[in-house]
TrEMBL record:
Keywords: Cytoplasm, Methyltransferase, rRNA processing, S-adenosyl-L-methionine, Transferase. Residues 73-239 form the Ribosomal RNA small subunit methyltransferase E methyltransferase domain. This is Ribosomal RNA small subunit methyltransferase E. It is found in: Cytoplasm. It comes from the Bacteria. Gene3D superfamilies: 3.40.1280.10. One of its GO terms (biological process) is rRNA base methylation.
C-alpha cells in the first residue's frame, strides 16, 4: 500500500489530498475509487488508512478507515556523519540509510574529500531531501531523516550525551573486533548514537585524533576494507541487528 506524509492533520474523516500527494496518487498511479493508501500524520507516530471515495481529474476525496501507531523506527536516535564523496554516491547513501532507519545525515567536508559542495550545498541538500522522503515512504517509515551539511569537522555540533563512533580502517587492519559490539551493548532506548564515516580517501590521523578528543571511539567494521558508500550501510545494518533482531536493548 502506498504511503504518504501529511504536513497537516485532516479536519474530518473525509479529506482532499494535498496537491503534491494528489499528483502522485491520482495522476501518476491513476488511483480509482476504493483504492487505499496510508498517511503518516504530523505527529510522525500515527498511520491513517484511507480509501478513495471520489476521483476528479487532478485530485481525490479520501475516507478514513482506521488509525494505528506501529513501532518501526530504530530504538535509538541515529545520526550518520558522512565525508563528502564524488558522483552520485550521496544519493545511494541517503536512499539506503533512510531505508535502514537513520534519523539525521550530516555531510561533512574532510581533508581528503574529493568533492566540494561549498555554496552548492543548499541545492544538493534539497535534492537529497526528496530522495530521503521517497525512501521513507517506500520503506514505510514514520519519519523522514533530516539532512544537513558541515563545511568541516570543526563545524559539527553534536549533543554532549551522544554515543559517538568513527569508522577507522586501521582498526580493521589491526584486527580490532570488539569496540563496535561493546558500544552497541551499552546503548539503551532513547540514546543518541552517532557514527562518522570518512570519504573515499579515508580520514587523516590528525583528524582521528581530533575526533577522539571530541569523544568519538574508533571502531573497525569487520576484517574487510569497505567503500565509502558501503560503510555507513554496514554500520546501520549492524546497529539494527544489535538493537532490533538480537534484542540487546
Amino acid at each position: 500500500m502506498q504511503r504518504y506524509f501529511l504536513d497537516n492533520r485532516p479536519q474530518s474523516d473525509r479529506f482532499e489530498l494535498p496537491d503534491d500527494v494528489a499528483h502522485h496518487f491520482v495522476t501518476v498511479l491513476r488511483a480509482k475509487e476504493d483504492d487505499m493508501a496510508e498517511f503518516v500524520l504530523p505527529d510522525r507516530k500515527t498511520i491513517m488508512v484511507a480509501k478513495v471515495v471520489n476521483v476528479t481529474d487532478k485530485n481525490a476525496i479520501m475516507q478514513v478507515l482506521e488509525s494505528y501507531q506501529p513501532q518501526v523506527e530504530l530504538p535509538v536516535e541515529t545520526t550518520l556523519i558522512i565525508g563528502l564523496s564524488k558522483g552520485d554516491k550521496p544519493d545511494l547513501v541517503v536512499q539506503k540509510a533512510t531505508e535502514l532507519g537513520v534519523s539525521h545525515l550530516i555531510f561533512v567536508e574532510t581533508a581528503w574529500s574529493v568533492a566540494h559542495w561549498g555554496n552548492k550545498s543548499d541545492k544538493k541538500l534539497a535534492r537529497l531531501q526528496k530522495i530521503a522522503k521517497g525512501a521513507s515512504e517506500q520503506s514505510h517509515r514514520l519519519k523522514i531523516p533530516m539532512l544537513s551539511y558541515a563545511e568541516s569537522l570543526d563545524a559539527l555540533s553534536l549533543p554532549e550525551a551522544a554515543i559517538k563512533v568513527v569508522a577507522w580502517e586501521e582498526s580493521a587492519k589491526q584486527g580490532e573486533k570488539s569496540a563496535l559490539a561493546h558500544v552497541f551493548s551499552e546503548l539503551t532506548p532513547g540514546d543518541h548514537f552517532v557514527g562518522l564515516i570518512g570519504p573515499e580517501g579515508g580520514l587523516k590521523a590528525t583528524e582521528l585524533t581530533h575526533l577522539e578528543q571530541l569523544g568519538f571511539t574508533p571502531v573497525g567494521l569487520g576484517p574487510r576494507i569497505l567503500r565509502a558508500e558501503t560503510a555507513p550501510l554496514y554500520l546501520l545494518s549492524a546497529l539494527s541487528f544489535a538493537l532490533e533482531l538480537n534484542e540487546l536493548v
